[in-house]
Design a protein that fits this description.
The chain has 298 residues and is α/β, with parallel strands linked by helices. It has two domains: 8-128 and 284-297, Aspartate/ornithine carbamoyltransferase (Rossmann fold, 3-Layer(aba) Sandwich), CATH 3.40.50.1370; 129-280, Rossmann fold. It has helices spanning 13-27, 50-61, 82-90, 106-113, 129-143, 161-172, 201-204, 229-236, 240-243, 266-269, 277-297; strands at 39-44, 65-70, 96-101, 118-123, 150-154, 176-180, 196-198, 210-213, 251-253. It has a five-stranded parallel β-sheet with strand order 7-6-5-8-9. The protein has a four-stranded parallel β-sheet with strand order 2-1-3-4, with helices on both faces. Strand 5 (150-154), helix 6 (161-172) and strand 6 form a beta-alpha-beta unit. Helix 1 packs across helix 11 and helix 2 crosses helix 11 (277-297). It is globular and about 55 Å long. The model has no long low-confidence stretch (mean pLDDT 96). The protein binds N-carbamoyl-L-aspartate. N-carbamoyl-L-aspartate (NCD) binds at residues 48, 50-51, 122, 128, 131, 161-162, 215, 217, 255-257. N-carbamoyl-L-aspartate binds next to helix 2 and helix 6.
């Protein structure tokens, strides 16, 4: 059966651990060039810096050719439907498709249209599985075993695909999760089931090993839902003072793009000891190499 990666929960435990182990192998500088002569389609219907670049670097490091499809310059702008677009691209027989889309569940639709693996590079506010895997790899590399560690995910949880997939993977790895957000940016009660919920940083950051800050996804909310950037920073911004509430050796994650001075202070983002943000960026490549390898060669 063709392997697809629409979300974290579609991964068996075996697949999850195989991908994390293979990513570690690649991160150590090994390379089996397992995608030699393969063709990967990068289909990006939404803006991206890290995800798009790292998928492309990953495929090329493994020896594949990458063809970038950009929605803005495609016939989608001539009112061609998504179905016709996917059917057209499938007729070129790619070996894997990487898809980013603003449409809810777009990867599941694409899975019915393509004969090859479809890997979700982020859809709507629903899921971003490869981001979650690279977050997990970053924490495992830092802590060794992450079982029993507690992470606080803070900020705009309601609109965040990163938070949803991160919660799924952290829970699978035996971590405890706090979510900290103003009431209006809290997810529904049916989501993040085992997480402890807090509306203030002072209580939510107690006994925390790692903090993940999130950008306010203004493009996914009606204007005026939340106050000004300055108000947000005062109540929820991660400063060095707030970081002191956590355990002394706590580390900081952010999926990017960061809005400095809104959800995170400059000296926290750039803290040479506590910030793992550029490690996350770096780990994007071995994780995506491992996912592509697993999908195409299995
Ligand atoms: C995020 C995304 O696009 O989902 N970034 C990423 O992929 N690293 C988060 C965001 O847009 O805020």
């Amino acid at each position: 059966m063709t392997f697809h990666l629409p979300d974290i929960n579609s991964l068996t435990d075996d697949a999850l651990h195989a991908i994390l182990d293979k990513a570690r192998f690649y991160a150590e500088g090994n390379n089996d060039k397992s995608l030699n002569d393969k063709i990967i389609f990068n289909i990006f219907m939404e803006d991206s810096t890290r995800t798009r670049m790292s998928f492309e670097v990953a495929a090329k490091r493994l020896g594949a050719e990458v063809i970038n499809f950009t929605a803005k310059t495609s016939s989608l702008n001539k009112n061609e439907s998504h179905a016709d677009t996917f059917a057209t691209l499938n007729a070129y027989h790619p070996d894997a498709v990487v898809l980013r889309s603003a449409e809810y569940n777009a990867p599941r639709f694409a899975m019915t249209m393509f004969d090859c693996p479809v890997i979700n590079a982020g859809d709507s506010f629903r899921a971003h599985p490869t981001q979650a895997l690279l977050d997990a790899l970053t924490l495992q590399n830092h802590f060794g075993d992450v079982t029993g560690k507690t992470i606080a995910i803070c900020g705009d949880i309601a609109h965040s695909r990163v938070a949803r997939s991160a919660y799924d993977v952290f829970d699978r790895l035996g971590m405890n999760v706090h979510i900290i957000a103003p009431e209006l940016l809290m997810p529904k009660a049916s989501e993040f089931e085992k997480a402890r919920r807090f509306t203030d940083m002072d209580s939510g950051l107690k006994n925390i090993d790692a903090v993940m800050m999130l950008r306010i996804q203004k493009e996914r909310m009606t204007e005026g839902v939340i106050g000004t950037d300055i108000d947000f920073f005062i109540e929820y911004g991660l400063t060095q003072d707030r970081l002191k509430i956590c355990y002394p050796d706590a580390v900081v994650l952010h999926p990017g793009p960061m809005n400095r001075g809104v959800e995170i202070a400059d000296d926290v983002a750039d803290d040479p000891y506590k910030s793992l943000i550029l490690k996350q960026v770096e780990n994007g490549v071995p994780i995506r190499m491992a996912v592509l390898d697993y999908a195409v060669t299995r």
